[in-house]
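Backbone-to-sequence.
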């Protein structure tokens, strides 16, 4: 939701997004959403394309086939060590995220 209606400040306050909660079709989807269900979310929300990056030893990702959609949302998938817990966070600046990976020491 933050990618569609980003407030100027205090982006972490859920209250900013409550008035928009019914804009997305999430019927039948479980949360937290598994990456394998993102394509279903995209099929149900035709203006949104979602890309998921995952930086670990095995580089897994989900790249949306819907590149021409109005909203492109980039997420980073984080794993909690020694558990099966995972969390998607929004990437607001891709250049800043990957800059350290391309710098040579």
């Amino acid at each position: 939701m933050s990618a569609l209606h980003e407030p100027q400040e205090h982006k972490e306050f859920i209250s900013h997004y409550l008035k928009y909660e019914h804009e997305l079709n999430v019927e039948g989807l479980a949360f937290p959403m598994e990456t394998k269900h993102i394509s279903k979310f995209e099929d149900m929300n035709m203006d949104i394309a979602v890309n998921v990056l995952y930086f670990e030893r095995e580089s897994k990702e989900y790249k949306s086939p819907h590149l021409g959609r109005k909203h492109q949302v980039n997420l980073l998938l984080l794993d909690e060590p020694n558990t099966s817990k995972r969390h998607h966070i929004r990437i607001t600046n891709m250049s800043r995220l990957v800059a350290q990976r391309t710098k040579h020491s």
